[in-house]
Design brief:
The chain is mainly alpha-helical. It has 18 helices and no strands. Helix 2 runs parallel beside helix 6, helix 5 runs parallel beside helix 15 and helix 14 runs antiparallel to helix 17.
């Protein structure tokens, strides 16, 4: 990377990460301070090595959209229907159209910025269960250096860290009992990316646990409306922003699987795709129904660790059973599983398995060939789902005992 502006941006984001860690009070020991500085340098260096890579997604879509804004008045072009991303992300692309800096770098720097905020959210989430500086630092740096996190933004140019950051913060706020902030963060996550819907079912379980209240849910549509209001004020029809996700849902394609380690990775040969698709949707709804039933019956035992398990379980199981899933749809599960593993050591294998499964999909797209059959990833996720269910049942049947076992 030979653009000094982009390099300066990475330096500033590294400094932001250091400032966050300093304010979180985890750098009180000199050795932790130097270790953190070294790890931040490594995290930004590996991203600098990725910044020049262009994927077909960038060439065919992202830079085309930035050029559209550049040629049609910047923010004024928000009144038009541009791309298939919701308008909060398009605000940034419109902003980038005013800059002389290469849009590839700006797009990736935005994602790296949210990588840092995502790592901060994971630190806070792990810190809700442990005050150990080592645990919180591990949450921050494992997230920041997680292969899928590095590849997603700095290499691929995708923006999954944006919706994931808001999603992780929403879980943190919910566990802290800050219902309005939790719902607002979830709404912002959804406003940026439809894939936030994989987490939203867990908010019903938060209601069971009285972490949020029914009236707090009214914040969701209000936050979403405020997020799209600037585009609406510039002339974009409100219906376009509301119907955008319906259009996306109808345009995911007819294939049962798109390089995803879902249950459909096991499907081979000629099959009745419509029937299997319906069965997959039914399985996802049945899974959620059974999970809701279990949590409602055991609602008095829903401690914070059980709630975090539910959040990870939903983010793994729902896209696992649904048809038409894509390679990046387990991104949120990758990150949330890190916080869970650090607070429940018996589940330390979970982020390893989830990241392994996700990386198979990343490799398939980025290298245009399979490293291993995708069904290997599906087996790993199936093992994760079963383990999380067992651990959840144990946690609900003996919440104090599970907490003591996890603390040892």
């Amino acid at each position: 990377m030979n653009d000094m502006t982009a390099l300066s941006g990475l330096v500033l984001l590294g400094a932001l990460g250091f400032l966050i860690l300093w304010r979180e009070g985890v750098l009180s020991r000199r050795r932790l301070l130097f270790l953190s500085a070294a790890l931040l340098f490594a995290a930004m260096t590996v991203r600098a090595l990725c910044m020049d890579h262009e994927t077909l997604d960038y060439q065919n879509f992202l830079t085309v959209w930035v050029n559209f804004f550049r040629e049609n008045g910047g923010f004024a072009a928000l009144r038009e229907s541009v791309g298939n991303y919701n308008v909060p992300y398009l605000y940034f692309l419109a902003l980038f159209s005013y800059s002389a800096v290469r849009d590839l770098y700006l797009i990736k720097l935005l994602s790296v910025c949210f990588d840092v905020l995502l790592a901060w959210g994971t630190l806070r989430l792990a810190g809700h269960f442990s005050k150990s500086a080592a645990v919180r630092l591990a949450a921050f740096f494992i997230t920041l250096l997680l292969p899928t996190v590095v590849l997603n933004g700095a290499y691929w140019g995708q923006c999954d860290s944006i919706y994931a950051a808001f999603a992780v913060w929403s879980v943190y706020f919910a566990l802290r009992g800050r219902g309005i902030r939790a719902v607002a963060a979830a709404a912002l996550s959804f406003a940026f990316k439809l894939q936030a819907v994989f987490l939203l079912p867990v908010f019903l379980i938060f209601l069971f646990a009285k972490k949020i209240k029914w009236r707090h849910l009214t914040v969701f549509p209000l936050t979403y409306f405020l997020a799209v209001l600037p585009a609406v004020a510039l002339g974009r029809p409100l219906a376009d922003t509301v119907l955008l996700y319906f259009d996306q849902a109808g345009s995911v394609g007819s294939a049962l699987n798109y390089n995803s380690p879902s249950i459909f990775a096991f499907v081979r040969g000629d099959v009745d795709a419509a029937l299997l698709s319906a069965l997959g949707v039914g399985a996802a709804f049945l899974f959620l129904l059974l999970l809701f039933l279990l949590c409602f019956i055991q609602r008095r035992s829903l401690n914070d660790r059980a709630l975090l398990i539910c959040a990870v379980l939903v983010c793994v199981a729902v896209p696992f059973f649904l048809p038409h899933m894509h390679d990046r749809y387990f991104f949120l599960a990758d990150v949330l599983s890190v916080a869970l593993a650090l607070t429940a050591p018996p589940l330390a294998f979970v982020p390893v398995c989830v990241s392994f499964a996700s990386l198979l999909g990343y490799h398939a797209y980025l290298r245009q060939r399979y490293l291993l059959p995708m069904r290997y990833g599906a087996v790993a996720l199936l093992a994760v789902i079963l383990a999380l269910i067992i651990y959840l049942v144990l946690c609900l049947s003996d919440p104090g005992g599970t907490r003591r076992r996890a603390a040892r």
